[in-house]
Amino acid sequence: MGARVWPRVLAFAAPPVLLWTWLLTPSLQPSPRQISGAISQSTACFVVCESVVQVADLKLSCGFDVLGLPSPCPSRTLLSGTAQATYAPLPTLSGLLGRSATSGVLLELRTDQKVVYRRSVRSHVLASVYQGWGFHAVYWPLVGLIIWRWPNSRFSRRVQWANSR
Predict the structure, then answer these.
(1) C-alpha distances in angstroms, 98 versus 16, 92, 103, 124?
(2) What are the tens digits of pLDDT across the range 128-141?
(3) Is the pTM of this model over 0.90?
(4) CA quadruple 87, 89, 93, 97: dihedral positive or negative?
(5) 3-state secondary structure string, 94-140?
(6) For residues 59-63, average pLDDT
(7) Residue 83 DSSP code
(8) Helix axis angle, 133-149 to 121-131, nearest 10°
(9) pLDDT in tens, 106-127
(10) What SS3 state is found at 34?
(11) What angle do CA 10, 14, 15 make, to 5 degrees?
(12) Interatomic CA distance for residues 41 and 124, integer angstroms
């Protein structure tokens, strides 16, 4: 049974890890694009609905998710007026399927030469690694595999709280 478990764990965990590794490499990141126009609050829906920023006709998410779920934007970005936005069209699963609710991830938002929001591609990707579903897609299969394969290891006892009284 052990020989069949490893390929399943790797098949489940590999896509998010490969995408994150690709996006964390600066030379392989998609080039940022700029747009200016009227800014407004909009709603983007893909599994869940969230408030996102709309600049001209583009809906921009304020966080990156491998699935393509829209991330809510902070209230300071949900303004009205005109703005210049820099965004990155990061690849997502929903984007590959043609079902993406947003056009990209907001990197910088300026209104009247004042920076309202700024975040790099790297920080978006790292936040996705540690806060998104992808972290759990990689972490828990590996934890389960370690507990199953080495039930008396120090890590296994620690995760199972065997040492607690």
Answers:
(1) 19, 10, 11, 22
(2) 777 766 677 777 77
(3) no
(4) positive
(5) HHHCCCCCCCEEEEEEEECCEEEEECCHHHHHHHHHHHCHHHHHHHH
(6) 90
(7) E
(8) 40
(9) 999 998 889 999 999 888 888 8
(10) strand
(11) 145
(12) 21
One-letter amino acid of 104: G
Beta bridge partners of 41: 53
Paired tokens of 26: 């600066």
For position 134, what pLDDT does the model report? 66
- DSSP string across 36-81: EEEEEEEEEEESEEEEEEEETTEEEESS--SS-PPPPPPGGG---E
Give φ, ψ of 97 to 5 degrees: -90, 0
Average pLDDT, the chain: 80
Provide the pLDDT for residue 24. 79
Label residues 72-83 b or e (16+ Cβ within 10 Å = b): bbeeebbeeeeb
- Residues 2, 149 contacting (CB under 8 angstroms): yes
Q: What whole-number percentage of the chain has pLDDT above 70?
A: 82
What pLDDT is stored for residue 67 in this prediction? Answer: 78
